[in-house]
Amino acid sequence: MPLLVFEDIWKSYQVGPTVLDVLKGISITVEKGELLAIVGPSGCGKSTLMNIIGLLDKPSSGSYHIEGEKIGYDDDRILSSIRNKNIGFVFQQYYLLPRLNALDNVGLPLAYRNVPKTEIADRSMEYLKRVEMQDRAYHKPDEMSGGQQQRVAIARALVGKPTLILADEPTGALDSSTGQDIMNLFTKINEEEGVTVIIITHDLKIAAQCRRSLKMIDGRICE
Amino acid sequence: MILGANLKEALTSLTTAKQRTILALIGIVIGIGSVIGMISIGAIVQNEALKQFKEMGIDIITVRQDSGNTGKGGSFRLDTIRELPLHVKDVKEVAPYINSSVSYGQGRKTEGIEMMGVTETFFRINKLRIKEGRQITDLDENRYFCVIGNGAANILRKFGIAQPMGSQVALGQRIYTVIGVIDKVPEGGGMRPYGLNNAAIIHISTAKRTFQSPDINVFLARVGTEQKSAQLKQSIGDYFTFKARGLRVNVQTAEELIEKMQAQMRLFTLLLGAIGSIALIVGGIGVMNVMLISVTERRKEIGIRRALGAQQSDIQSQFIIESVMLCLVGGLIGIILGTFVSYLFAYFTKWEFVVSYMAIILGFGVATAVGVFFGYYPARTASRMDPIKALRS
Ligand SMILES: Nc1ncnc2c1ncn2[C@@H]1O[C@H](COP(=O)(O)OP(=O)(O)OP(=O)(O)O)[C@@H](O)[C@H]1O
Ligand SMILES: [Mg+2]
């Protein structure tokens, strides 16, 4: 059974008197364990697509199945719970909470699952080690470099053992060598843990390292 | 989400936005502080008043001649009062008294002393304790002997009489010999006549000869419990109507006085409670305002938390906990402040300081309620935010 099935997904915005179609009938299937890149020019709708995949946003029409289950959009509790347990997000701007240290940031997804405190700390530390950030565990985000923050963000995405990692331009704010380190991390996660990873990127060098890449132009997937 | 983690986060978020937090706290501190202060002061006043009743016993009544609005009523005759226990068997003892204020001292600096003319029973009924010497007895009839209160003794010392006991003092153009000093008694509220501490107590017969207005208008009595108070009042009223040609009397029992005082206290508490509530509402609106600003400023954080899988209810409880914590901190400061104010009150009135635990529990309860009530709307706004819009902000 495929992990994700998108069938004819549309997303439109009402902007003043006109309707703006951002996604124009997207159909994709993603198998478990894939390392997939989505590339395309700015404004073509990549982030919009990712938000829909990640259940942060809902499509205007079309159907979406995760592991064979059709997503209904009327119960926010179910959507939140799927985000919490099955999906890990990595954003271009890292989005760590500035007041929490690295360890507490990593532990956040578990905190929303009623995992006991000591176990949260243990597991968070384990994942910080995996991204080689254990010696920055008690640093606040503003005491870390961009690359380091992104590593912490990846640990946070992984700590809940999700089936899917969604990364929206994870290397976009980093220089090319740091970006490559981050990319290596994704490849490693994908290979070692079998986690499905979807990376949105501008960088063709990054896309080339993925086993499959989809090109998006103006709200459509071509080839 | 685990409560502990939530509390810790609420604390850090409140301490990072210090200025705003302090501003919101002021309203709550004033609100809770005034409620607690008022209730505690009420408790001190009530405690003091009840203490006197407890000390004197509640079997004491005050009987006044009731001239009504006409102004020219009669007054009691001493023998009529003294014979009352013979006719109304529930009246065990009577203590008529008359009083008159005189000023003591020479030249510019004078102090007021309350002269009281009494009978032997007065000391027993008022439970006055003799510190030095002896009390006035009925054998002191027409003699210029006085027993002075603790305060009066201090006044004498101030005027150079190092040993008031046994000294000769000039009061109202007569010279009296001090034959006794009584212990300090609590003032105000009870059945005891006012001014006992600053009094010079003499025999009633001496008083009738020397006072400008020697009329007896009031007496205290100790009563038994055989009769209901209404019946007792009736019997006493009938006695004077018969014996003193229609003299009307007003009988006040200790119970009635306590009840009246408690009713007054309730009114006082209610009034002050209302003032405190207004302060609390103002404070609560301040908290709501601060929480709304906090929600707007932390939209991105809310978006991130939602992306990581926080339920709407998690976000809501996070902000409610924060607002409750804010109010509890304000409440704690308010409770400390209010208790301190009531301590000062007790200190300056020289009354016993009592901590009203009820008020403290109420303070924390009210603070929590204000936090939940005024935090609810901002927290709900936060929880209903669209995750995408929140993330983009
Ligand atoms: N809430 C909205 N209302 C109206 N238009 C929107 C809204 N959100 C996104 N859009 C539009 O949808 C289009 C796609 O936006 P999106 O963020 O998905 O692009 P993107 O491919 O991720 O671009 P980039 O590479 O620059 O991140 C844009 O033209 C944007 O203006
Ligand atoms: Mg984008």
Report on the structure:
The complex is a heterodimer of chains A (223) and B (393). By secondary structure, chain A is α/β, with parallel strands linked by helices. Chain A has one domain (4-222): P-loop containing nucleotide triphosphate hydrolases (Rossmann fold). Chain A has seven helices and ten strands. In chain A, strands 6-7-8-3-9-10 form a six-stranded mixed sheet, sandwiched between helices. In chain A, a hairpin with a 2-residue loop joins strand 9 and strand 10. Chain A is globular. Chain A starts with a strand and ends with a strand. Chain B has 393 residues and is an alpha+beta fold. Chain B folds into two domains: 2-53 and 259-392, no CATH class; 67-247, no CATH class. Chain B has helices at residues 3-16, 18-56, 78-82, 84-87, 121-125, 150-158, 204-210, 229-243, 254-297, 299-307, 312-349, 357-383, 387-392; strands at 60-65, 91-104, 111-118, 130-133, 145-148, 168-171, 174-182, 199-203, 218-223, 249-253. In chain B, strands 1, 2, 3, 4, 5, 6, 7, 8, 9 and 10 form a ten-stranded mixed sheet that branches. In chain B, strand 6 (168-171) and strand 7 (174-182) form a beta hairpin. In chain B, helix 2 runs antiparallel to helix 9 (254-297) and helix 11 (312-349) packs antiparallel against helix 12 (357-383). The radius of gyration of chain B is 32 Å and the shape is elongated. The mean pLDDT of chain B is 87. The chains are: A alpha/beta (223), B alpha+beta (393). Magnesium ion (MG) binds next to helix 1 of chain A.
